[in-house]
Amino acid sequence: MSSIIEVEQVSKRFIISHEGVSQYTALRDEISQKAKRIFSFLKPGQADDISREEFWALQDISFKVEQGDRVGIIGRNGAGKSTLLKILSRISEPSSGTIRIRGRVASLLEVGTGFHPELTGRENIFLNGAILGMSRAEIRSKFDAIVDFAEVEKFLDTPVKRYSSGMYVRLAFAVAAFLEPEILVVDEVLAVGDAQFQKKCLGKMEDVSRNEGRTVLFVSHQMNAIETLTNKAIYLKSGKIQNFGDTEEIVNEYLHDYEHATDVRSYTSRSGSGKARLVKLEVWGRGQKLTSVKQGEPFTVRVGIEAKEGLGMDISFVLENFREHPIFCTHLSDLGEPIRNSETYMEFDIPVNLNSLRKGEYLMSMALFKPEKGEFYDTVLHFPLINVEGMDEAGLFPVDHRWGDQYFPLAWNKISI
Amino acid sequence: MQANDQSWDLVIEPGRSEKNYWNDLWRYRELFYILSWRDIKVRYKQTVIGAAWSIIRPLLTTIIFTFVFSRVAKLQNPGDAPYALMVFAGMLPWQFFSNALSESSNSLVGNANLITKVYFPRMIIPASSVITSLVDFAISFLILLGMCIWYQYLPSWQIIFLPLFILFAFICAFGVGLYLTAVNVKYRDFRYIIPFIIQFGLYITPIGFSSSVIPEQYRLLYSLNPMVGVIDGFRWCILGDPMHWQSFFVSMGISILFLWIGVRYFRKMEKTFADSI
């Protein structure tokens, strides 16, 4: 009976239209659709060819959160994490199901929502505070603490457009850190900002949840953040709850699944007109297919593309770290020619000889596009590519706690003075 | 299960937001103040001639309208006020109405980042942009005072009723604005039609002329344009022009109807804003 949030069979459905790239309805389209429908009465043989598809972002989600629980929500992109947070914070409505909540919910889905670049730091604190649901009196009483936490005293009366991105993020997070709701809903907001401030924010959030008994729901891709901040976790997979339980167990399950990535053909986090599609993505090395390589070991990415015949096409490949931050991007046309006349099926090998990639999971994004017009045939986002195993076991790199995704041994030449 | 609902602070269900909507609107009033304040502040911070703009535009239009309608078309003013003053008394509410319409119809799309990241009753956003237009109106009102001094014209005693007509103008602008805002989110190309509506309105609304030039038998039909009632009211208050009360009530009825339709349509569309914006 002490549960503070009860989610019961919540589903969310989106209708996606396959017709154009544009996601908005245009009045002129609506009118022409109506006209088409009228004419289809005259030609009864022809069916209505509007290709609309239902897409269930969430399906039958049920769980309960107890007072003081800190719940992590994990899952791959497109698994429905953000949709769930949006429904919990009342930004979008569920298509069916019920959610019951005790107490005030504050949601932090973005750092600095509503910040206006023309307004000063001081003004933005009040603006952002009000947007997050604080009253003016509340903000006034916490004002000094916020400024102190953000370390921006000197620039309080400067428009935030002149702030460095670090200052901006600090100020924005500081406002949110002083929210005092019973339930705090946080999306991956810590991906921005420098490492030191990230640590400070994590500390503050830990404080809020652990010591003040507040309930926190937290989405992140950083498993270590999930592990330090939460005691329970929900693992979402394609809109359904795969598992719900103690954080450690759930994170392990997730990481295990992650290594056995699904087929790119059925991968859903993608968009584009579909005239060409990425249907095969493999990593090759040592003469065989691989899911993980050792640090420093070269590997080859093999991509297979199905296309309509005769398309003009360029391909871009982005290697990303686990947090979806791009490391580099390479184009087909960088060293060769873009495709002038596509065949129905094509394969490419991209040799990756980077001995600088450090231990960790790596993702890739790929776009197949028409070079001149900017039409995207297929854009695949954040597909899990490869796991790079560290070499610390071998004793070559005993300290693996350094920063950065890449490893560059550089010479440190001592200067004799 | 149903009885148990009482112990929960918030229940989220499809269609549930209906029930505590007006409560929420009241709870979020501080956000409304602060968003209005932001819009006003940004508006006058960004443009060097910010405030000057809201003086120059109605003033120039008034000069041109006075010339065209009084000198070229040789129309008469039913009252004793100078023609330019009569034009301006109509220009004031019209400028407010047209500003409010164009500002509010773009307001939701312009604040898309807020709508997709935070919950609040969405009506706050178009409402605060109508408030911004009200500040422009206040500034333009100073010109009216200036013109009265210039022409040495003493406004009639009815001017004490002016706040009522400002409220009427507000209702009118807010109702139509809400409707257009919601349509604009759904059909993104609708924004190309809005300037046309406003331009069209400029000609079918009695700004450069008095509505008394409309033949008596068409007066009621003419006042289906709600701004006719507003402008007649302004002229009655400021200049003491005769008031055609029947057509005034028609205009008022129409604008309340618009408000009702606007609120209903907005509320209906509101739930899907975050998904479709």
Protein model, in words:
The complex is a heterodimer of chains A (417) and B (277). Chain A contains nine helices and 19 strands. Chain A has helices at 27-42, 81-88, 121-131, 136-150, 165-177, 195-212, 223-229, 247-259, 332-335, and strands spanning 3-17, 52-66, 70-75, 96-101, 105-108, 183-186, 215-219, 232-237, 240-246, 270-271, 276-285, 288-290, 292-294, 299-307, 314-321, 326-331, 345-352, 360-369, 376-389. In chain A, strand 6 (183-186), helix 6 (195-212) and strand 7 form a beta-alpha-beta unit. Residues 18-22, 45-50 and 392-400 of chain A have low confidence and may be disordered. With 277 residues, chain B is mainly α. Chain B has helices at 21-27, 29-46, 50-72, 83-110, 112-115, 124-150, 162-186, 194-204, 219-222, 226-239, 245-276; one strand spanning 10-12. The two termini of chain B are 35 Å apart. The longest helix of chain B is centred in the last third of the chain and has 32 residues, at 245-276. In chain B, helix 2 crosses helix 6 (124-150), helix 4 packs across helix 10 (226-239) and helix 7 packs antiparallel against helix 10 (226-239). Chain B has one domain (32-276). Helices cover 70% and strands 1% of the residues of chain B. Chain B is built from eleven helices and one strand. The interface between A and B is large, with 43 and 39 residues.
Q: Classify the secondary structure makeup of chain B into a structural class.
A: mainly alpha
How many domains in all of chain B? 1
The CATH homology group name of the largest domain in chain A: P-loop containing nucleotide triphosphate hydrolases
End-to-end CA span of chain B: 35 Å
The helical percent of chain A reads 25-40%
**Average pLDDT over all residues of chain A:** 81
